[in-house]
Amino acid sequence: MSALPGPVFDPGLAGWIRPLAESLIADTAFHRWAGLELLQVAPGMAQVGFTADGEMLVFGKYVHGGVLNGLLEPPALLAMLGHMREDEAAMTVDIHLQHIRSVQAGERVLMTGRLLKRGRNVAFCEVTAQVGDSLCTTARITKSIQNKTS
Fold first, then answer.
1. How many helices and strands in the chain, by DSSP H and E?
2. pLDDT computed for residue 6 by the predictor
3. Domain interval for residue 71
4. Is residue 48 part of a domain?
5. Is 69 contained in some domain?
6. Cα separation of 99 and 82, whole Å?
7. pLDDT tens for residues 56-101?
8. How many Å apart are CA 61 and CA 77, to the nearest integer?
9. Is the full-model pTM beyond 0.90?
10. Is residue 2 in some structural domain?
11. Less Cβ crowding at N or C end of the chain, within 10 Å?
C-alpha cells in the first residue's frame, strides 16, 4: 500500500504558512488523537479530514458531537492564513453550528473551511463537514484578529 500524498499548499502562500499549518495539526494533542489530516491550504480555503473510530465514538457507534465541534476549528483558522500577516493571531469569539446528521464509525469525514470576510480585527468563516456528498455539520465561526506582540 502506498503512502498518501502530503497536503497541497497553494504556491502563492507566504513561506511561514506551511510550517505553521503543519504544526497546528501535528503539535496539537487533540488533533493527533483524532487522526486529523491536513489535506489542502489555499488563500481563503482549507481542507482537513479524519476517519471516525476509536474513543471518539459514543454508545451508538457515531462521533460524539463535542469531538466534531472541536475539529471544526482548524479548517477555519487554516483558511484564514493566506489573509493574515505572520505577526497576527486569530482566536474564536463565537461559533454557531448545526449537526445535520451523525458521523458513523468508519466514515471518512472531509471538513472544508472558507474565509467569508476579513476585516481589520475580525474575520468570519464557514466550515462544513461531509461524508461523501452528505452534509453532516455546518459551522459559522467568528475570529478576533490580534497582533501577536499585543
1. 4, 7
2. 83
3. 8-147
4. yes
5. yes
6. 28
7. 999 999 999 999 999 999 999 999 999 999 999 999 999 999 999 9
8. 29
9. yes
10. no
11. N
| 1 domain-assigned | no
Rounded-to-integer distance, Cα 122 and Cα 92, Å = 10
**What is the β-pairing status of strands 45-51 and 88-99?**
unpaired
Of 97, 104, 101, 77, the residue nearest 17 (C-alpha): 77
| Phi and psi torsions of 95, nearest 5° | -145, 135
Q: Which cell numbers in the block locate residue 137?
A: 455539520
Residue given cell 496539537 in the structure block: 28
Cell digits of residue 108: 471518512
Rounded Cα–Cα distance for residues 121 and 123 (Å): 7
Question: What's the CATH number where 31 sits?
Answer: 3.10.129.10
Domain count across the chain: 1
What span, in angstroms and rounded, lies between the C-alpha atoms of 87 and 135? 35
Spatial CB neighbours of 120, under 8 Å, sequence gap ≥ 6: 145
